[in-house]
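EI: anyone free to look at a 622-residue chain?
SC: sure, send it
EI:
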Amino acid sequence: MQPERSSTAALTLLALGVVYGDIGTSPLYAVRECFFGLGGVPVTRENVLGVLSLIFWTLVVVVSAKYHVYVIRADNRGEGGILALMALVRGAVTGQRQWIVVTLGLFGAALLYGDGIITPAISVLGAFEGLEVATPLLSHYVVPLSIAVLAALFLFQRRGTAGVGRVFGPVILVWFATIAVLGIRGILMEPAVLQALSPVHAVRFFAANGLPGFVVLGAVFLVATGGEALYADLGHFGERPIQIDWFALVGPALLLNYLGQGALLLASPPGTVRNPFYQLAPSWGLYPLVALATMAAIIASQAIISGAFSLTRQAVQLGYLPRVNIVHTSPREIGQIYIPGVNWALAVLTIGIVLVFRSSGALAHAYGVAVTTTMVVTTALAFVVTNKLWGWPLAASVGLTAVFLFVDLAFFTANAIKVEHGGWFPLLIAGAVYLILTTWYRGRALLRAHVHESAVPLEILLADIAADPPTRVPGTAVFLTPNVGQTPAALVHNLAHNKVLHQQVLFVSVVSEEVPSVPADGRVAVRELGSGVYWVTARYGFMEEPNVPDVLARLGRHGLQVPPEATTFVLGRETLIVAGHSALPAWRRHLFALLSRNAVSAAAFFRIPPGQVLEVGTQVEL
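SC: here you go
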């Protein structure tokens, strides 16, 4: 979601709900998994201090230093996120390195869809598991209640969050204040827990536990999940509000709560604490805390779902996905979009994994794999930014990257051990999405090459029109074509069969740039070709949505009058035939054809009035 620009204070409050909902719900399960999850270590004083020390330094190194100080500066004209970063660095390298950059960026983006499935499930399950602390009799209701809330959440998406989004920030503010107070309550039980801030305890933890201690890193990493969201939402709020939130509220509140949970473990008799987050609360506050945690989980889920919508729009604009139906849910806020296909795919998969895994603990095994892989990719791409775009000396770029990569790979390896216990799920989703992204991009490239080979050169067409003018009819004909400088096949077929040409002919090419947005004065370029024929190029960024009628309305500044009521849009529609030999295997060609058949029509995507569209079909052998 993209809020209206306002004061830093307002943006800071709004950013709380969008940026920090995910990482803010990590206390529900992170500490618990370190001791009671798969590969958890025994609850001893040394282990508690060691785990808390690892948690503290993870928040410092991964979230604070890497993302808030380093990666957040690698913006693409103010926009963040893995695809924006990929688009930024792709032009800075060539050859094999460019292929590596694109591969890393696309796979990192694909992993975020797995994150979008797991985050709502683990957050909502973790919130309702507080009922088990209240009484074991309610444990049977955790999964049904979670499914009910998730179903309502996905059903609500089509209405947008323009209205309720305004309460996200205040609710999350209350959430962080609450978990901070709970943490302080725990620390007062055992003030010695503050010793965990020393890295000595982390070193001793590894020395004492060996391989089991390393495996626990997979659970420790849960405290950083959601850290990548602050970079993805950079364009929505800007660097300053996001940093103010972290250093003034979110970071301290999380640290206090983790220390409080550790203090509770130290102060309690062995075996009496199984869910330290909820057991920090007094008995009278347990049910209100479950309610507040559920609201926080819903907000965290909403943010990640909206992020999946934004990521899909970027992928479409950059040419890695077919056109999809994008619904605007707010007339005032551009970023408020809803993509039905993505929403229902996420809904089915999210509810499905709740039914399969049935607890936040089981889902925790799957969670870290996707996020750690994304963080490794981000570190690798950020290296290109420092070395190629910022002009850092190679030694400085390599040195800093090595530090962050060492930490990322340690967490990645610890989480990779859990692949057989659920980590396979996000990798499976990412593999499927990556296959779709690359198949569509490669298929479109082959299709453009085929059209280029069979296209009539523009110079020949113009010469023929001048030498043997066809019958001209009143009005304007607009031919959409992605191939700049080539005659649209729809025009050739129209002339061949109808023998007529409109008085004014516009070839319109919509070009997607690898920047978030294009300035208004650089949106449209017009070139006169003679005989009443013009070539119009409209440029859009990957965060923008093309609007052909708006482009035509701008042509008056270029001396062209295009009355909407006298304009006909002639669109080509290719029917793909999978036959013969191709650079793509047959199964990928069938997949490309399936994607093409299900793409939203050009008329709907480019906001062309349906009553003024004439489609000309052609068959293309792929």
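EI: The chain has a mean pLDDT of 87.
SC: 👍
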